[in-house]
Amino acid sequence: MRLYDYLPSANGYKVRTLLKQLGLAYELVPVDIFAGESHTADFHAKNPDGRIPVLEPEHGRFLAESNAILLFLAEGTRLMPEDRFARAQVHQWMFFEQNTVEPNLGTARFWLLTGRQSAQSDVLRNRIQNTERALSALERHLGSRTFLVDERYTVADLCLYAYTHLAPEAGVDLAPYPSVSAWLERVRAQPGFLGPVPPYTANARTP
Ligand SMILES: N[C@@H](CCC(=O)N[C@@H](CS)C(=O)NCC(=O)O)C(=O)O
C-alpha cells in the first residue's frame, strides 16, 4: 500500500494517523505540492483534481479525498460502528468537516501561515467567523458527550480532530470552547495517535 502525501497537510495527517492506529504498513511517497508535483500528467492520472492525499491500496488503484480514504480504511474495524444509524452519524460529521471546518479553519490557517492574506483582510475575517460558527456547533454537541458518535472513539473523531486542534494557528482561540478542548485531549490520548502536524515547507510561502 502506498500513500502519496505532503506531510504538513492536515488532510494527509488524518490518513497517516489512521494507518498507524490500525497498524497498517505503507510506503510514503512525498509529493511537493508547492513545486507543482501534484499537477503533472502522471499525478492527474492518480487524482484528476491534483491534490494529496491519494492512497494506492493495491497496485494501480487510486483513491483520493481524505475522508473517502478514512472510510475505506476504517470499514470493518473498531473505528467504524456496525449500527446503520451510527454509521450515518459518522458520515454526518465527516461531511460537516469537509463542508464547514476544512474550507474555513483549514484555509484561514493556510493563508496566515504562508502569508497569503493579512490578518485584517475581509476574506480572512469571513473564514474565521465561519470557523467560530463550526466550533460553536461542535461545542453544543460535545457539551454532553464524550465522543462525536455513540460515546466511543470513531473515525469521525479522528477526522474532525485533524483541523480542529489547529484552530489557534487559524487565529481562533479555543478557550471559549471548553467541551471541544476536553474532547481534543480525549482524542489525542487514543493509542497510536501521531505527534504534531509538521510545519509548512519554506516553498509554501508566497514570495
Ligand atoms: N477535500 C480534499 C482536499 C485535499 C487538499 O486540498 N489537498 C491540498 C493539500 S491539504 C493539496 O493537495 N493542494 C494542492 C493543490 O490544490 O494544488 C481532501 O480532503 O483530501
Low-confidence stretches: none
Q: What characterizes the major β-sheet?
A: 4 strands, mixed
Radius of gyration, taken over Cα atoms and rounded to an integer in Å: 17 Å
CATH classification class of the largest domain:
Mainly Alpha
Number of domains: 2
Coarse shape: globular
In what range is the share of β-strand residues? Answer: 5-15%
Strand order, main sheet: write it out: 2-1-3-4
The CA-CA distance between the termini, in Å, is 36 Å
DSSP summary: helix tally: 7
**What oligomerization state is this entry in?**
single chain
Family: Belongs to the GST superfamily.
Domain GST N-terminal: 1-81
Keywords: Transferase
InterPro entries: Glutathione-S-Trfase_C-like, Glutathione-S-Trfase_C_sf, Glutathione_S-Trfase, Glutathione_S-Trfase_N, GST_C, Thioredoxin-like_sf
